[in-house]
Design goal:
Strand content: 15-25%
Order of helices and strands: EEE
Mean pLDDT: 75
Number of strands: 3
Number of helices: 0
Structural class: mainly beta
Shape: flat
Helix content: under 10%
Strand order of the largest sheet: 2-1-3
Number of domains: 1
Largest sheet: 3 strands, antiparallel
Length: about 60
């Protein structure tokens, strides 16, 4: 089950979503409820690699 990262195009909030087989993509931003989301390209998580996610470097609110 992959974890996808999304950024809201309205408020720039970044969030992760664990996607199960048969799940749809998230319908809205958990921060502002906008439905304008952009799927981000994520760096693969490696043990001891630190924080290598797409949201940490672009979101003014940081990664949640």
């Amino acid at each position: 089950m992959p974890i996808y990262e999304y950024e809201c195009e309205k408020c720039a909030y970044c969030f992760e979503k664990l996607v199960f087989v048969g799940d749809d993509i998230p319908a809205e931003c958990p921060e502002c409820r906008s439905m304008e989301l952009k799927k981000l390209i994520s760096v693969a998580g490696l043990i001891g690699a630190g924080t290598g996610n797409a949201c940490s470097s672009i979101s003014p609110k940081g990664f949640s």
